[in-house]
Write a structure and sequence with these properties.
The protein has one domain. It has a three-stranded mixed sheet with strand order 2-1-3. α1 (7-24) crosses α4 (94-108) and α8 (209-232) runs parallel beside α10. The chain is 69% helix and 6% strand. The longest helix has 48 residues, at 150-197. By secondary structure, it is mainly alpha-helical. A hairpin with a 2-residue loop joins β1 and β2 (283-291). It is a multi-pass membrane protein. It is found in: Cell membrane. Pfam families: CobD_Cbib (PF03186). Keywords: Cell membrane, Cobalamin biosynthesis, Membrane, Transmembrane, Transmembrane helix.
């Protein structure tokens, strides 16, 4: 039993949520995560003493800033996760409860959104429209794209596809398997706050530290399962071995404990050399290498998409098999 659902209805909720995502994609208006982002921004503006401005309070203590960040995380994340858990705990017929879990999963998943944001970059590069490809890439990454060429754009899109495959899809599925719709909500809200506050800048280094650390903890197992899945589904005769070798040798050098395994394994699986130099705020940052092989080109973007899509199918099949195995055990 999972939050009142037997395993058959859990399987129905899982399938329902993924089918809703495949059919409908990202909600164009009034998306809950967009509303959450605005609310989180308002909370941060209220509690973060180091927000930029003429009254910048550089004297705020480290402990105070960390405590305020933890309080802000709690105010932003816990009410939504608690509401989801309360709704799912209400007495209702099993089909209705499964539908509720499915809808919560749908709002948290981003598989179709990945495709809809990434493949247009490939189409623009195929058409030789660099300005359009740069504009599309700038929507999904924080690095500079104004002067980026095809290789830079293809690398940025491929890295984002691999990393967000874990953040927007597999981490969500993992926590849905653990705690149903409320688990998916908790993970997705925490991951969104990490994307908003988890920077080592003056503004967020202390205030956003709790958001970063909590996301690291929630993502620890999903990230490694994602890295293993990328390796298992690597195309080519030596893809799996190469992905595992890149994971083992390159992940420790990456600044994020979870992005490192995911991106190094994914890059190795695709036979690509990712990482390296990237421009942020007009300054070149030399990042550790990821993967092994050739530089990324436009055609590698749909290859990365197929790896994420196939991994989604693997996870779905595995979760359904576990659910039905538990039902008949």
């Amino acid at each position: 039993m999972l939050l009142g659902l037997d395993w058959n209805w859990f399987a129905a909720a899982l399938l329902g949520g993924m089918l809703l995502d495949a059919a409908l994609g990202e909600v164009s208006r009034f998306h809950p995560l967009v509303g959450f982002g605005r609310m989180a921004g308002a909370i941060e503006a209220r509690l973060n003493r180091l927000r930029p401005g003429p009254r910048h309070a550089a004297s705020a203590s480290n402990a105070s800033q960390f405590t305020r960040g933890l309080l802000a995380w709690s105010l932003a994340v816990l009410p939504g996760a608690a509401l989801a858990a309360w709704l799912c705990a209400q007495p209702m017929p099993a089909p209705l409860q499964a539908a509720l879990h499915a809808v919560l999963l749908y709002f948290c998943l981003g598989l179709r959104s990945l495709r809809d944001h990434m493949l247009p970059i490939w189409h623009a590069l195929q058409a030789g429209d660099l300005p359009q490809a740069r504009a599309l890439t700038a929507r999904i990454v924080s690095r500079d794209t104004q002067q980026a060429g095809e290789t830079d754009l293809a690398k940025a899109a491929t890295e984002s596809m691999l990393e967000n495959g874990n953040d927007a899809v597999f981490g969500t599925l993992f926590w849905f398997a653990i705690a149903g719709g409320p688990g998916a909500v908790l993970f997705r809200l925490a991951n969104t706050l990490d994307a908003m506050w988890g920077y080592r800048s003056e503004r967020f280094n202390l205030f956003g530290r709790s958001a970063a650390r909590i996301d690291d903890a929630l993502n620890y197992l999903p990230a490694r399962l994602t890295a293993m899945s990328y390796a298992l589904l690597a195309p080519g005769a030596n893809g799996t071995r190469r992905a595992l070798a890149c994971w083992r040798s390159q992940a420790p050098a990456w600044s994020s404990p979870n992005a490192g395994p995911v991106m190094s394994s994914g890059a190795g699986a695709l036979g690509l050399q990712l990482g390296g130099a990237a421009s942020y705020g007009g300054e070149i940052e030399q990042r550790p290498p990821l993967g092994a092989g050739s530089d990324a080109v436009a055609a590698d973007i749909p290859r990365a998409w197929r790896l994420v899509r196939n991994t989604s199918c693997l996870w779905l099949a595995a979760m359904l098999a576990i659910a039905y195995g538990a039902h008949y055990a």
